[in-house]
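Q: Convert this sequence to structure tokens.
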Amino acid sequence: MRIDKFLNSVNIVKRRTIAQDMIASGVVFIQGVAVKASREVRVGDVIEIRYLEEIKRYRVLQIPATKTIPKSAKEQYVIEA
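A:
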């Protein structure tokens, strides 16, 4: 699954366009490398979002099979590291 779709699917960001803007601004990293929106996410990847004065890290546990998941199921797919 593409990184922009993944961020939206697991409820890290509200809209895919927001995810695309964040990626274009260079604040989204996987394994410490800035990514493009087309970058595929794999189980075990560490997604890092650097914005304002905060850095959030998420470890990918599972890739969702559907476009959206319930907010209560977020912990099955990512864990904040």
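The mean pLDDT is 94.
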